Amino acid sequence: MESILNSFIEGLKNEKILYNRCNQCKKNFLPPTYHCPTCGNDKLEIKEAQKEGTIETFTVVHVAPTDFVKEAPYIVGIVQLNDDLRIMARIKSTQNENINVGDKVKAAFDKKKQDASILFFTF
Known about the structure:
Blueprint: H1 2-13, E1 18-22, E2 28-29, E3 44-48, E4 52-61, E5 74-81, E6 85-91, E7 104-113, E8 116-122
């Protein structure tokens, strides 16, 4: 499992969202795994997702985990990517933007550390 997750993390470092596509049932899924969660097949392709999507749901985090206390309040949501995939990530906006379910967003990457890249979505 570690190597498949490493490829996903490496993809993020290179500003790519990687996912699996099952060669048997043709389902797309995230996060990448060794077997299709739908049919159990182990013949999978690693593909790159489009970086655009639609907000399906979101919440405002007021009480944040220790590493993010200084950033609260912030928004986390589920984004339906254009590849029939869903991913949970932070959604960043300017102070005067209202966020609504159905809004179109695009992926962006924050390189806080040299060896890591954090995925978020913006307008």
